[in-house]
Amino acid sequence: MNKSWKSYNTGPFFDELITDAGKPRVAARRAVNLLQKLSRDEMEARRNAAELAIRDMGISFTIYSEGQNIDRAWPFDIIPRVIGGRDWSRVSQGLAQRTRALNAFIDDIYNKQRILKDGIVPAEIVLDSGNYKPQCAGISPRFGAWAHVCGTDLVRDKDGKFYVLEDNLRVPSGVSYMLENREITKRVLPELFENYSIQPVDDYPAQLYRTLASLSPRERKRPCIVVLTPGIYNSAYFEHSFLARGMGAELVEGSDLFVDDNDVLYMRTVDGPERVDVVYRRIDDDFLDPEAFDANSILGVPGIMRAWKKGNVAIANAPGAGVADDKVVYAFVPDMIRYYLKEEPSIASVKTYLCMIEKERDYVLANLDKLVVKPANESGGYGLMVGPHSTAKQRKTFARLIEENPRNYIAQPTLSLSTAPTYCGNTVEPRHLDLRPFILSGKDTWVTPGGLTRVAMVKGSLVVNSSQGGGSKDTWIVEGSK
């Protein structure tokens, strides 16, 4: 493998492990030195061991294709991503700051709406959004926390700085894969952990439990917490069951719960009804309660919104939190930080053009070949166009979509996403990646040390989503390093 590493070329991008001079970065030095010593056969054996571990552990994800649900083994790359602890400390502080501002914004929107009255955020952007739920008006959850679990997508540009690409505040997924990535790496490269001070991630279920328990309306040593799943056919069902098991919570579907005449939520058990204190819901708002939202939903729990409004149960993430999970609203988060916290943003956001503003729309339409165009509320890498990789036909289609519904589209510069060495075939090559840390908000705020690194396995591609062919890496935060 030495030859593969020696010919490794970072190109014009910031590489997470290797400097422009071809040397390992300080935080990654021990890992790179060990990996360089492994022969091709040894690397292949380690990759085969990882694939076997993934099958044995039952780690899978579901993609939707042509009306079918297809289970696939989790795509994993054995070379870890390494970030210095001091670098991460600054990022972690910035993520906590951003989440505090987002929670303050959501609480304000469903109550006094000061930020709209003061003209910081245009009212029509928020109140006309499908993510604004008038059913939540007048509610202020405990600690003012609405987005109890936030998954914020970060990227590094060629300047080596982290930027926030988007916030995921409704039902963010991926944390179970972050934990499993670490377990797989420990199995197949155990010697890498011998001389490193790597911050652990395996306490996430305990941290999540503490966050959820702090929301309980009843003072109990061990409140009743349930994980509400749409069922086994959901693409994130593996994660739902993984986290329920890790917390010692019950995994339930809507039919397992009911609300009584006193607006109290109960779980059906073999020993009779048991009162539920906290629901960690993995169901979208529209399907959560057929009384309050979609009357045809069979996934949710009739009356759960009544129980929540009465303060008889906590729901995480709170209904309505998605009002801040909008790529148009994203553009105003730096202003929210200044408005609510009286601070400057610690992490920069990616420059964003709002197609609803005529001047910015004109710029986007004139530069479609240079920009990434995204719909305001899609996720999973669907519905976007990467300008430099697009065809004339695609650009023409997106120009029409933007002109027909400008509120639904934003555009951002095509970033030079950072790369990391990735084992492709039987060689080590650079691949682009992003990072999704998870921020927990309840009585306290806690940020995962690292997060879920997603990798664009196709050479030159910037699309990292697993549903679009992306893979994943273990992410290390190494103490005492930049």
TrEMBL record:
Family matches, as InterPro entries: ATP-dep_Glu-Cys_Ligase-2, CP_ATPgrasp_2, UCP005522
Domain Circularly permuted ATP-grasp type: 80-456
Transmembrane regions: none
One Pfam family in the UniProt entry: CP_ATPgrasp_2
Protein name (record): Circularly permuted type 2 ATP-grasp protein
Annotated organism of origin: Halioglobus maricola
